[in-house]
Amino acid sequence: MRLATWNVNSIRARVDRILGFAVREHIDVLAMQEIKCKVEQFPYELFEEAGYHVEAHGFSQWNGVAIASRAPIENVRTAFPGMPGFAKGHNGPDAPQEARAMGATIEGVEVWSLYVPNGRTLQDPHYFYKLDWLAALTGYTRETLEANPDLPLALVGDFNIAPTDADNGDPAVVPGFSTHVSPPEREAFAALEAAGVSDVVRPLVPTGYTYWDYKQLRFPRNQGMRIDFILGSKALADAVAGAQIYRDERKGEAPSDHVPVVVDLDFGGPDDDDRPMIF
């Protein structure tokens, strides 16, 4: 299985580019974030013509997640247990949930496409919502893997956290003063890993960014951040045969500000094609 995650920053604005990448790179499962459309606005027909099943979850022009797969998509969920909601001026446990998570089972692999809240500023209610959201995801991950330690679980997407200083090359993002790099966010990311998952890309691709702001020539100056991840359980990590960050997808006309992150998974079955491993 070739699994990819990509914050596409509007599926309707970039559908040709996204599908071109998926077909050209033989992507089997593509988890997308920031699709920025309602479910009925998603370009299903174009994906289906390219050989993909699709499930999408979106309410408006903000947020939104989706999964496209060449194999059938089963057991679709649009929230994990305890996932908090958020609305401006709305406090309490009954705040409406945003379209930030989609889980599904594909050929025995549990895949979650995740768009972790941004946080905005260290004093914003959205920041505390982000920490609560990550805590709930951590609880779900721990409980799931305690119940089924051999489950191939993939938590993929835009986590809006640079876990180490080496993952932050944007001079506007200052540790101690900015979201994405604050100690509580990094601690939340570490707690999620401690629940039973690990970054399965970093061992094969130790350096490289996945996001560059559109402003201030961040991409030409390579002042980016590594905030898009594929976190996998042990069963998934053991199956990783290759990984790549597709930096060149930030180039060209009207790119997303994020690039795809891809892993090749080999669960020990017979080879079904002659695609090369990517390291």
Care to describe what's here?
The protein is α+β, with helices and mostly antiparallel strands and 279 residues long. The chain has one domain: Endonuclease/exonuclease/phosphatase (Deoxyribonuclease I, Chain A). Helices cover 21% and strands 22% of the residues. The strands form 2 sheets. It has a 6-stranded mixed β-sheet. A 6-stranded mixed β-sheet has the order 5-6-7-8-10-9. Helix 3 links the parallel strand 7 and strand 8. Helix 3 packs parallel to helix 4. The longest helix is centred in the middle third of the chain and has 23 residues. The chain is globular and about 45 Å long. The two termini are 15 Å apart. The C terminus is likely disordered.
Strand content: 15-25%
Q: Structural class, from helix and strand content? A: alpha+beta
Mean of pLDDT: 95
Q: Strand sequence of the main sheet, in spatial order?
A: 3-4-2-1-12-11
Enumerate the spans where pLDDT stays under 50 for 5 or more consecutive residues: 274-279
Helix content: 10-25%
Write down the secondary-structure element order.
EHEHEEEEEHEHEEHEE
Number of helices: 5
CATH class: Alpha Beta
Q: What's the architecture, going by CATH?
A: 4-Layer Sandwich
- Tell me the major beta sheet: 6 strands, mixed
In CATH, the homologous superfamily goes by the name: Endonuclease/exonuclease/phosphatase
Instruction: Work out the count of structural domains.
Output: 1
Distance between the termini: 15 Å
